[in-house]
């Protein structure tokens, strides 16, 4: 398996995670956006699920074709970036929905 | 097929069961990497881990969109712990979307030849990433337990 697959998957996963988190919070704040997400597939979560995977593979295929040789530092950066995106996005979503419940915003 | 798709306890059981097997598979993968093993176990654990989490996602998603919103959510929202939905279900359903992309990275790491894996010095990153998948899986399981308990307290299940 080529090294650039790992690099591309790391950055693709990061993009997918960030976009899912931003879209989720924006949709909670904007009912028109949430209604649009719902209208696409019948459920906003299904649309977000499809978008998460679609974004992952579009970025992945683009990076596979765009990147040449990848070195150890680039691969480690891509893995760590995906890791931190997942950790911080999880904390952000938990904090956002907690704040929503306690009416902080 | 309708026997499965209309059987709510079975759907929840399959969703949970596949998630547990996904967590176990990545725990197995961590053991393979920690022991510097490059046999088939490293690849198989990553492949089945990704597969199990994908099944858990599909089955959980089917249950969530077809039954949870119309039958369980209203009961929790009117019960003693409405926060179980507003905080934990909302968080859980979105964090779940992070797991499969992360598991795909682990799959590619598992497929890397031993020589490349050692030259690139990726052991620490691989262990932390697989550990994060296990941790996210367990925290999602805990949130699922809280949501199920809230429905039971409200008399919904």
What helical percentage do the residues of chain A reach? Answer: over 70%
The major pleated sheet of chain A works out as: none
The ordered H/E elements of chain B are HHHHHH
Q: Hey, roughly how much beta strand do the residues of chain A contain?
A: under 5%
Low-confidence stretches of chain B: none
Radius of gyration of chain B: 18 Å
The overall pLDDT average of chain A reads 95
Number of strands of chain B: 0
Mean pLDDT of chain B: 95
Q: Could you tell me how far the N terminus lies from the C terminus of chain B, measured between alpha carbons in angstroms?
A: 23 Å
Shape of chain A: flat
How would the global form of chain B be characterised?
A: elongated
What would you report as the Rg of chain A, rounded to the nearest angstrom?
16 Å
Low-confidence stretches of chain A: none
Strand fraction of chain B: under 5%
| Count of discrete alpha- or pi-helical segments spanning 4 or more residues of chain A | 4
- Helix percentage range of chain B: over 70%
| Structural class by secondary-structure content of chain A | mainly alpha
SSE arrangement of chain A, N to C: HHHH
Largest interface, Cβ cutoff 8 Å? A-B, 39 and 39 residues
Q: Could you outline the blueprint of secondary structure elements for this entry?
A:
The complex is a heterodimer of chains A (105) and B (157).
Chain A: H1 3-29, H2 31-41, H3 44-66, H4 72-101
Chain B: H1 2-5, H2 8-34, H3 40-78, H4 83-111, H5 114-120, H6 123-153
Helix pairs in contact in B: 2-3, 2-6, 3-4, 4-6
Walk me through the structure.
Chain A has helices at 3-29, 31-41, 44-66, 72-101. Chain A is mainly α and 105 residues long. Helix content of chain B is 87%, strand content 0%. Classes of the chains: A mainly alpha (105), B mainly alpha (157). At the A-B interface, helix 1, helix 3 and helix 4 of A face helix 3, helix 4, helix 5 and helix 6 of B.
